[in-house]
Amino acid sequence: MTQRDRYILDRATGRRLRARDALIVVGLAVFLLVLVEGRSIRNQAEEMQAGWERTAMLAIGKPAGWIADRLPLADAFDSATAFLSPDDKLSGPGGFENAAATVTPGAAGNAPAAITPDYFDPATLGQKPKPLPALRKLLVTGDSMAQPLDAQLARRLSGPGVNTVRDAHLGTGISISQIVDWGQLSTQQVTKEKPDAVVVFIGANDSFPMKGADGKDVPCCGADWAAIYASRARRMMNTYRRAGAARVYWLTLPLPRDTKRVAYTRAVNEAVAVAAQPYRSQVRVLDMVPVFTPSGFRDSMAIGGKNTIVRRPDGIHLNDAGAQLAAGLVEARLRADFTTVGR
């Protein structure tokens, strides 16, 4: 050691920290952390997956959060350090708070249509749907796809005393109105029957061009065509739901055997899903694709542990066994939506 080093050591001043002092410093830091970040510790622990780690974190986080909730230190700390991560000062249009609570559908400009509670099916939110009092009259309608589904439902519900009106219109479709205009037909059906529930199974013939806003034909099956189809289907759904007094059960099309038909089948199903969005509290889209054709076309499937043919030879329609399966799915949803079915 040089003479200079000795001089420096001799001149050194200050108090040496002992182990106890270090523990006091660490303890003080932990105490301040609990006061300032106790809420965050508790919140992080509550979001962890179940296990010993979550249990251990909650053992610390709950009392820490309890203390932090009763002291203003966390809020004061956030305010004091806000400049470290400043938000941009925002002004002008587009803010949530300054916007109207609802926007009128079809409003001018770029304003979106209002989202109402009718958009949500309570069952998908984990809530119990508010049931309608009683199902007395059921209308089963559509094109040839509605047969023999209508007969199966009439047979299933005849015991409870439900009046099932079977009104299938073969060879018709939403995209073609030369034979039947479904916009007019749906209005007539509701006016005449006043059904409590409507089951719709349609689309086997829907691949025809439809008139666009400019009056020109829009061929199947792109987004422009699907938008027109969805608009027509939405009008029907709105008619059938009777301003919320009825429930609508719209079955999608299971995939067909003919690959040429697959494109418009998918377009029809997607359009139906889009069409139902504003009315999901009253319109149930019952998807038949995962039931009958989860991996593409199949003419048979296991029912009750037995391989059963469920499609007709044309590879499009359901046979009696397939219709019986579909009818069971419809009936289950009917019983969930209505307090009583029949008498």
How would you describe the overall organization of this protein?
The structure is a single chain. By secondary structure, the chain is α/β, with parallel strands linked by helices. Helices cover 42% and strands 13% of the residues. It has helices at residues 3-11, 19-47, 52-70, 73-80, 149-158, 182-193, 223-240, 259-275, 289-292, 320-337; strands at 132-135, 137-142, 163-168, 197-201, 210-211, 217-218, 247-251, 283-286, 300-303, 306-309, 338-341. The strands form four sheets. Strands 3-2-4-7-8 form a five-stranded parallel sheet, covered by helices on one side. It is elongated, with a radius of gyration of 33 Å. Mean pLDDT is 84; it is low at 101-108.
List the helices and strands and how they pair.
Blueprint: H1 3-11, H2 19-47, H3 52-70, H4 73-80, E1 132-135, E2 137-142, H5 149-158, E3 163-168, H6 182-193, E4 197-201, E5 210-211, E6 217-218, H7 223-240, E7 247-251, H8 259-275, E8 283-286, H9 289-292, E9 300-303, E10 306-309, H10 320-337, E11 338-341
Helix pairs in contact: 2-3, 2-4, 5-10, 6-7, 7-8
What string gives the helices and strands in order? HHHHEEHEHEEEHEHEHEEHE
Mean pLDDT over the residues: 84
The class by helix and strand makeup works out as alpha/beta
- Number of DSSP helical runs: 10
Give me the side-by-side strand order of the main sheet. 3-2-4-7-8
* Uncertain spans: 101-108
Helix content: 40-55%
User: Strand portion, in percent?
Assistant: 5-15%
Distance between the termini: 107 Å
- Characterize the quaternary organization of these chains: single chain
Rg over alpha carbons: 33 Å
**Count the strands?**
11
Main beta sheet strand tally, sense and closure: 5 strands, parallel
Shape label: elongated
